[in-house]
Amino acid sequence: MIQTEEIHNLEMKLIEAIKTSDVSFLETILNDDLQFIAPNGMLITKQMDLDSHRKKTMVVESINAKLEEIKILNDTAIVIIVYQTKGKMLGNPIEGSFRYLRIWKLMPNGFQIIAGSCTQIES
Prior knowledge:
This protein is an alpha+beta fold. The chain is 27% helix and 55% strand.
């Protein structure tokens, strides 16, 4: 059975991986069939996400997280988390509060993110 604390710990590791562009960690937790919707509506795949870290087209200057909710449904966890973030994406500045919805699924090789979305919100 999935424990809320386990998902919380993975979310905290994910934040560190995003900050440091830890492609190795991201490669293991992002499912090959990841479907993620960016704030502009663009569909992001695992490869696109990893490439943004490899090529340094995504630069995180600061990120603070506030975990709002973790729901466990059998072998799946739904996470809602807000990031207060500042950085650059494809050379364009990004700053503000963003609410993320992430879906983690227990796979044969451990937990992986299978889907998610991100929306900018008022701070």
